[in-house]
Design brief:
Elements (H helix, E strand, L loop, with lengths): L2 H8 L1 H20 L6 H7 L5 H16 L6 H5 L5 H12 L1 H15 L1 H33 L5 H29 L4 H21 L23 H7 L1 H16 L6 H9 L3 H29 L1 H21 L5 H24 L8 H10 L2 H18 L1 H21 L12
Amino acid sequence: MSALEALIRKNLRFNIAISMTDATFFGLGWGFSSFGTILPLFVSSMTDSAILIGLIPAIHSVGWQLPQLLTANRVARLRRYKPMVLMMTIHERVPFLGLALAAGLLPFLGAGLILPFTFLLLIWQGLGSGFTANPWQSMIAKIIPSDYRGTFFGVQSAFANMVISASAVGAGYLLGWLDSPLDFVLCFLVASVGYGLSMLVLGFTREPVDELKEIPAETRSPFTGMGAILKRDRNFSWFLAMRIIYQFASMGFAFYIVYGLRQFNMDEITAGFMTAALTVSQTVANVGMGWLADRWGHRTILIFGMLMVSLSSLLAWAAPDLSWFYAVFIFSGLANVAFWTIGMAMTVEFGTEAERPIYIGMANTLVAPATILAPLLGGWIADVAGYQTTFMISVVGGLVTAAILVFLIKDPKKLIVKT
């Protein structure tokens, strides 16, 4: 064991405690500024456009994915990641103060000015999260030993989900008690406090300087070396293909609520219970699947998750009544945990320490176009051929991704990539 590894092991419990506290405050912020509820409600107070409202989560998802390859070369040359993490993460947190200001000024300036200002803030926030993502993941991969990463990412996500759920309830009470726009002003201010405390705690992370790391030569283009890696590392190329296909395999998930409303006359209370089933399943699965991934391998749990995509979509396609949709949402929650939590843990296993940021960047940036296209394609198919056709395509997509994992991908922890 090197001196660096010994120091990392020595600080492991401290860093885990810091990360869980960070996740708690981040969850507080997220619950009061949810991209699935609070922000769509705020935007819907200014416009009836379903397209604009639907863009809100898409902006965040693409903002997270798109910049990661652009920062990869810079991150790869760092001996210590935390300073860049703290510098970049400011840009994913400050915009919420701007949203509080926007809500407060709405009665005076009107939706004509505040609506575009809101979307500028959302784009800033999304890109800020994306520029933070690569150095943050690289830092976590450095300070958390590989045999704990699945459990770490799972427990951290579970902590955040529990606080998000409680915060969302609190935000709901604020929206019910206060008149608009004061309700949104307070929601975004509380969110800003949560994000600020999260950043403060994150600053206490103990990350040693890696003096022995081989620093790659500086390159002008962020895409330099990408082609060589894809040709050399076929295992990662198939992993990337699996991540892209997953976007289309899971495109039916977005239409479960709408299908329930139109096909089975689902009411708001039932929709709330369905959402709760999804949240609870993801919270429990984050811990359980993360722990199992460290023992059985990330690939094994990903295969299980892709099969859950097919099972969830198949049940939605075949459902004779609403009661089936509890299982539909639970299985979709398991699939999401496999892709996001376990997928993140597996991504950081590829390549050397110096190459890791490039791998992280490719695993996210190259998936971004599919992230944009998949929901549009799913919506078009639903309009033209019906929701059940979309669900059946998702069934096939889940089986394809599972087959790729079974036959074409090996766990990178057990595979020595020839360089």
